[in-house]
User: Which sequence fits this backbone?
């Protein structure tokens, strides 16, 4: 049924909320609840509506940007060249259409393309300068990603220094993965230790790379497959196909197999051949990537807002089987989201035994009319995430039961809420046991209270032993209790207790962020601390006052107000007060320093401090930091081996400072 513009606007709003929520789960929490195919369909539905009703299209739509926001617990790295996502298709006809479109855009030209495996991992970008690994980052939002250098350095197959005749600079792109055998072994070890299993290798790889403790990443069988380059200096490449030999020569692991084709028939043949051999690869794959080989042709074809026109990803159909749905259980996630899970008659799908499958949410269950006792169709989407995708209604006996989402959290008994316009049902009790481990990890993370040593493994043990029942219990830990934990020697215990004590002096905004209030990120936490100056004033504030604060707004303001009306959360605040945490804001606002105030800076090259640390010095004095040089740039701070940004600054006549000049300006300010 065709929608009018008012109905379309309502549907667009709903789709955007769903997509942003799934983006957060996939990119930021590494806990997706729908398959790639279902996510792609949501995006396609939104894109179709925006094309049909152009007035509804906005620059901040999920159709116009890539991935998720960089995580605040990590330092941030700006990619030298954007990391864009690829358009996806599940249809060979659309692959044909893709190549025909290339032929129309490049008439009378031969258009060779490369076909290579689509690794189901985590996109990463590594920068090598004169052969040495300088840094590694996640995709992030495509422009800025998380600094995961220390975790990448723990991967044995990733060289710390390239071999042979190295380029002056190489920004190399790849997919980090957890190999199949290692994933099975890791889950067996977690089961033995009483820890929850990882849902799939992709999630496990993402979780490993986003550990604040590199020692945890080092314990996991991670690898990287490199498939492309963002920026290269010192080596001339005219074709993508020449990159594979370069990667091998430099010691960088590349794709197991790749094909070259210049016709639709050859492309489809390569896709079918890859499907036959990909299951023997050590990593998970979920499709084939088709890329124009010649860089000159790519330059002509160009880009859309989020994807190159010269590439497309073809995804293989997931295997489907039928089995009995015995029950529908409820899982409670870190943010309190209640997710229905199918308890199935065990069945083999995609070569592994499946007894659980996601059902996404109550609306999805109603839409598919899934009932307890049904024979259901199960798909291992993307080879790894089992999902119920259909029902054999023709096999019903009349004994099947309809499902209703519980009105109270199955873990803690608190009443659950469902915000208007939202799909998710949430438990708002911050002390819910199912949320406890992840909340403690968040509280202790580097971006919040920065309690070094209180990582995943230790938190799991402490919660299991009931030594931690909420984040306030962190400040009651003793050496005697910690000595009983595995892998905790005398020195480790002493270091952890010292880190806990140091955290009491953290700034107020870090405490606010560490509380894990729904929708409250770093910027909102800073704004709250700057506006109210103490935690008690925030607790006592009205919804209206909260919503007037910049970086807070309507949704976040209501969330903050609700959080501090929960009795359990108020008890937690009092426990933290008794422990001696800082409830007053002593953070100094940016000073309007001469030489810095109202200026815009770009930092490039190698300096004596990290770019993040230097950026903080600039921000504290009233300046801004940008990732790209433009006419609006006031200064470029150029360290050793500064590249294209330095050249652009010279072209535009932007003032360039070396580090000595920068330090003099700091001293003068």
Assistant:
């Amino acid at each position: 049924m065709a929608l009018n513009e008012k109905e379309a606007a309502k549907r667009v709003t709903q789709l955007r909320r769903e997509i942003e929520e799934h983006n957060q789960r996939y990119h930021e929490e590494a806990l997706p609840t729908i398959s790639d195919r279902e996510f792609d369909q949501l995006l396609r539905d939104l894109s179709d509506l925006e094309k049909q009703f152009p007035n509804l299209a906005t620059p901040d739509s999920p159709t116009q940007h890539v991935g998720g926001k960089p995580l605040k617990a990590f330092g941030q790295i700006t990619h030298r060249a954007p990391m864009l996502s690829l358009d996806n298709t599940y249809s060979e006809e659309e692959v044909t259409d893709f190549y025909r479109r290339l032929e129309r855009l490049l008439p009378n030209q031969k258009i060779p393309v490369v076909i290579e495996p689509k690794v189901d991992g985590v996109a990463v970008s590594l920068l090598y300068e004169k052969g040495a690994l300088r840094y590694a980052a996640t995709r992030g939002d495509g422009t800025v990603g998380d600094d995961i250098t220390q975790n990448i350095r723990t991967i044995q197959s990733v060289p710390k220094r390239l071999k042979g005749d190295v380029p002056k600079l190489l920004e190399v792109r790849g997919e980090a993965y957890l190999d199949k055998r290692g994933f099975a072994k890791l889950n067996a070890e977690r089961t033995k230790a009483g820890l929850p299993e990882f849902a799939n290798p992709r999630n496990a790889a993402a979780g490993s790379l986003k550990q604040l403790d590199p020692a945890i990443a080092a314990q996991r069988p991670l690898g990287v497959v490199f498939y492309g380059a963002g920026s290269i200096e010192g080596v001339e490449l005219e074709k993508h196909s020449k990159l594979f030999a370069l990667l091998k020569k430099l010691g960088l692991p590349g794709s197991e197999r790749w094909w070259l084709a210049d016709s639709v028939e050859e492309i489809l043949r390569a896709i079918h051949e890859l499907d036959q051999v990909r299951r023997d690869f050590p990593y998970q794959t979920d499709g084939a990537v088709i890329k124009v080989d010649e860089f000159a042709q790519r330059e002509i074809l160009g880009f859309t807002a989020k994807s190159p026109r010269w590439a497309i990803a073809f995804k293989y159909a997931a295997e489907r089987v039928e089995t009995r749905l015995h029950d529908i259980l409820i899982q409670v996630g870190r943010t309190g989201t209640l997710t229905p899970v199918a308890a199935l008659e065990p069945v083999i799908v995609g070569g592994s035994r499946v007894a659980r499958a996601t059902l996404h949410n109550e609306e999805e269950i109603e839409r598919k009319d899934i009932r307890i006792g049904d024979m259901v169709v199960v798909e291992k989407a993307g080879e790894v995430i089992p999902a119920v995708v259909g029902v054999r209604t023709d096999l019903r006996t009349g004994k099947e039961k309809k499902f209703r989402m519980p009105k109270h959290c199955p873990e803690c008994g608190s009443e659950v809420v469902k915000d208007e316009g939202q799909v998710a049902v949430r438990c708002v009790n911050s002390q819910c046991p199912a949320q406890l481990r992840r909340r403690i990890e968040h509280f202790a993370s580097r971006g919040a209270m920065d309690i070094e040593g209180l990582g995943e493994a230790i938190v799991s043990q402490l919660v299991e032993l009931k030594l931690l029942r909420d984040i306030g219990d962190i400040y009651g830990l003793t050496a005697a209790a910690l000595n009983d934990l595995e892998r905790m020697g005398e020195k480790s215990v002493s270091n952890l207790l010292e880190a806990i004590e140091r955290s009491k002096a953290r700034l107020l905004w870090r405490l606010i962020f560490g509380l894990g209030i729904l929708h409250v990120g770093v910027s909102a936490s800073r704004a709250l601390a700057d506006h109210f100056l103490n935690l008690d004033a925030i607790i006592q504030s009205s919804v209206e006052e909260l919503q007037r604060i910049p970086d807070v707004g309507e949704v976040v303001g209501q969330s903050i107000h609700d959080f501090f009306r929960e009795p359990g959360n108020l008890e937690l605040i009092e426990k933290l007060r008794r422990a001696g945490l800082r409830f007053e804001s002593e953070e100094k606002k940016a000073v309007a320093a001469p030489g810095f105030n109202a200026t815009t800076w770009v930092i490039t090259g190698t300096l004596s401090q990290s770019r993040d640390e230097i950026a903080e010095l600039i921000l504290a004095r009233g300046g801004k930091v940008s990732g790209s040089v433009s006419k609006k740039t006031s200064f470029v701070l150029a360290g050793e081996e500064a590249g294209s940004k330095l050249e652009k600054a010279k072209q535009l006549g932007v003032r360039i400072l070396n580090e000595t000049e920068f330090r003099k300006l700091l001293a003068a300010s």
In short: DSSP finds 24 helices and 22 strands in the chain.
